[in-house]
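User: Structure with guanosine-5'-diphosphate, C-alpha cells only please.
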Amino acid sequence: HLRANWSSDESDDDSDGSGAECLYRVVLLGDHGVGKSSLANIFAGIQEKEAHDPTGAVVLEDTYEKTMTVDGEETTLIVMDTWENEKQEEDQTWVQDYCMQVGNAYVIVYSITDRTSFESASELRIQLRRIRQAENIPIILVGNKSDLVRSREVAVEEGRACAVVFDCKFIETSASLHHNVHELFEGIVRQIRLRRDSKET
Ligand code: GDP
Ligand code: MG
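Assistant:
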C-alpha cells in the first residue's frame, strides 16, 4: 500500500475498477523544517529509523499512497511531500507550480515554535486561492510540534483565528508524539467527501 514516484501516477492501473473516483491527491505545503515529511511518514506508516538506510543516507520517497477507511467508506489518498526538493531553483519553481495545480486537497503546515512559518502559511493560503480561484478545495491549516510547549511562538487561538479568516479547517498536531496525525488525514477525507456530496445533490 505504499508507492513512491509521482511520475507514475498517470499509469495507475486501477485493476479492481472501483477506486478511481475515490483517489485524491493531498499536497503538503509549508516552510522547511515544520514537519511535513514527518507527517507524511506517519501517514505512510514509516518509522523514523526505516527512513534511513544502513549508511545513514536518507532514503525517503516523497509520494505515498494509502487507502483509508473513514466512517465505513474507503478512500485512497496520495500524499505528496514534493513541495521542497534539493534540485535547482528552476526545477523548484516548476515543482511548486505543479503542486499548486494538482492537489485535490491541501495541508498547509507551520510550526507552532516558528512564527515565520506561520506567516508563510498565510502567504501560501493566499497564493493557493489566487491560483485555484474558482475551486472550492479542502484546505487544512496545521500547527505542528504541539509537544514543544516551552518554545511555542504561535498560540492555538492565533492558528484557529487564521483558519477562520482563510476559510479552512485547523488542527494542531505533534508528529513526534503521533498526536492528532491520523485525525488530520481523516479530516481531509471528510472534507473531500463533504464537497463531493454537495456537488452530487
Ligand atoms: P519538513 O522540512 O517540513 O519536511 O520537516 P521534517 O519532517 O523534516 O522535520 C524537521 C525537524 O523537525 C526534524 O528534526 C523532525 O524530527 C522535527 N519534527 C517534526 N515534527 C515534529 C514535532 O511534532 N515535534 C517535534 N518536537 N519535532 C518535530
Ligand atoms: Mg521534508
